[in-house]
Amino acid sequence: MRVEPYQGRLAKCSALMKGEGIDVLLLTKPANMFYLTGDGRLCAYALITQDGQVALGVPSTDVEDVSGLAHFDRITGFEDEVGMIHAIAHDFEHFGIATGKAGLEYSFLTQAMLGMVTHPHAKPQDVVPVDGTAILSELRMVKEPQEIERIRAAAHVADAGMKAAMEAVDEGATEVQVAAAAELAMREHGAEGFWRTYVASGPRTNIAHGLPTRRRVMRHDLVMVDLHPIVDGYSADICRTCVAGEPTDAQRTAYELFLQAQQATIARLRAGVTMQELEETLHGNLKAAGHGGHLFGPPIHGLGIEFEEAPLPAGHAFFHGEKAPLTANVVLAVGNCRLYTGPWGVRVEDTVVVTREGHETLTGYPRSLQVRGWMHR
Amino acid sequence: MRVEPYQGRLAKCSALMKGEGIDVLLLTKPANMFYLTGDGRLCAYALITQDGQVALGVPSTDVEDVSGLAHFDRITGFEDEVGMIHAIAHDFEHFGIATGKAGLEYSFLTQAMLGMVTHPHAKPQDVVPVDGTAILSELRMVKEPQEIERIRAAAHVADAGMKAAMEAVDEGATEVQVAAAAELAMREHGAEGFWRTYVASGPRTNIAHGLPTRRRVMRHDLVMVDLHPIVDGYSADICRTCVAGEPTDAQRTAYELFLQAQQATIARLRAGVTMQELEETLHGNLKAAGHGGHLFGPPIHGLGIEFEEAPLPAGHAFFHGEKAPLTANVVLAVGNCRLYTGPWGVRVEDTVVVTREGHETLTGYPRSLQVRGWMHR
């Protein structure tokens, strides 16, 4: 059971909790538990006191496994949800917490889960639930060097997955087959898994979340591939668009425009710039070319343990208004929005670290519009 | 845009809504929207009136795609979350719904999402939110013949995935590699995707949710593989355990015991039996052999559009108390719980349709404890 980096993170967490007047965090989101304790899994919880003590509750089957992976002061195994509720109650009692504010993950807990963790047999009556999402978002936003190294490793795997995906775009291939090639390559290169793999072709390149279907790629289709491998618990995010056979002039023009807008945005990245300024750069370039009505989705978001996290995500992208300037060691995906035209859409996205003096792009797969398939026959 | 089976399902939905006094459903869960309209996707909603009218809200990028896939009376494209809130308000206004009860998905909606769909600019003030989960669970529990055919197709894909997984358990293989082999095979056999793929080896066969890691399989390890391919929107569920090299006597005995308990449970399946009776059969066999303290998880659950659905899931497995006898055409996964011993666990799970006279098992991969890898060298 490693003490670092968890004690350092818990100390920062304590300071934020004090600042917000939150006495205890009751977490069930795997990504947050992973960050603060070294293990995050389903059907488990972490209770974190304001002075940085950690009580974990996990299925009784998992106590030994978690004990080998996580940093904690106290661990309880439970048999079922009733047992989980009682374990939470015992943790509150053990730490002598009978009043105060408990930070819960309002952007993660369903109504049903909220009902469970705040059940009268779990939470003391005078402990008031509040939203603790902001604390975890802020904690996780600026990455430690070891986190950046893991994201870098994930970015290399993402490049390998993209190469395999692009090579799989060939006559007769379906979106599902392209996704399969990418996922196999990512695992062969060291991913333990991946968040959603998007592969969309033809008119489906317009849609917001193009999960792969058994649609066959056809000549002149654009094909958009968006990958999110996980390596040692950390993700990268890459999107590339290619064309099956010769692109039309309109396709090439739109693609070059988007790429130029994305690159102009990356060029502005450095500590001190705001998310709003970056968004205005990306959107501004596209709007100036007459595509103001053809944009969808937040153009930039953070990533790390999750493939979409602060700055933005957790809850709703458009309700944030991230005003604070970015600091060094925030990691961003730049190019998350698509330029959609109706018949098709285009997109290029890269994983980039903000540095004091500028930035470093971690994903490196070529960005030129690749001509795949039919052309080569 | 197909009318059936959606009009028939909406008619049943209307009857259930009337019975519960629910005036309108406001859905955001893809599985529920897929069932009632033919399309379910992220960042979208479906508003269903008590007389079976359907209003969809989707990203503006997706209007054309959804229009080709879904049954609806009205569709709105929105640009962002503010647009989504306004679209919901317009739908309430269009249908003249200013009072009454709105059924929401309390087992799906996070606090943050709930805040959005019940935002004062979305939901009329006098429309009261209530939990509509039970209606959707009941609707989806008994499958139509065409749904069973899709689950059957998914079961064949699951068998193919399991064959590939078992063949991948060989000297030097990691859990991730076994998962990769299974997922590639499932896609090659027609899956458009899959729910979580679990591969756990050695001591990890104890844990409740064994997502694959880069752990290498070692001699005498048990390896547990649990697959959930999706074919035409429907899932199957299969789990098998194999052994790397010669099993110990204890491993073989535990495995044979679990398999016998699972088969005894399947043998009892027919219209009229209750979930409780089935659980008692499975647990009873294991308890009688002295393993009462070695069980974890609900032993049986429904499946269909989701890999875990009613009977049970939606919310919390242990809080349901499914009392009603099962009817024909409910589809179950039997063998979901594991028998864990400490050093390792075993499990066998199959997808089974309840029929009037008995049952039909859809997954067919061999159930004997397979000896893989080192033995063959």
Structure description:
The structure is a homodimer of 377-residue chains. By secondary structure, chain A is of the alpha+beta class. Chain A has 2 domains: 6-140, Creatine Amidinohydrolase, Chain A, domain 1 (3-Layer(aba) Sandwich), CATH 3.40.350; 142-376, Creatine Amidinohydrolase. Chain A contains 10 helices and 20 strands. The longest helix of chain A is centred in the middle third of the chain and has 24 residues, at 145-168.
- Give the percentage of residues in beta strands of chain A: 15-25%
Q: Which strand order do you get reading across the main beta sheet of chain A?
A: 4-3-2-1-5-6
Shape of chain A: elongated
Count of helical segments of chain A? 10
Number of domains of chain A: 2
User: In total, how many beta strands of chain A?
Assistant: 20
Q: Indicate the radius of gyration of chain A in whole angstroms.
A: 22 Å
User: What is the CATH-assigned architecture of the largest domain in chain A?
Assistant: Alpha-Beta Complex
Structural class based on helices, strands and sheet pairing of chain A: alpha+beta
User: What would you give as the CATH superfamily of the largest domain in chain A?
Assistant: Creatinase/methionine aminopeptidase superfamily
CATH top level label of the largest domain in chain A: Alpha Beta
Q: Helices and strands of chain A, in N-to-C order?
A: HEHEEHEHEHEHHHEEEEEEHHEEEEEEEE
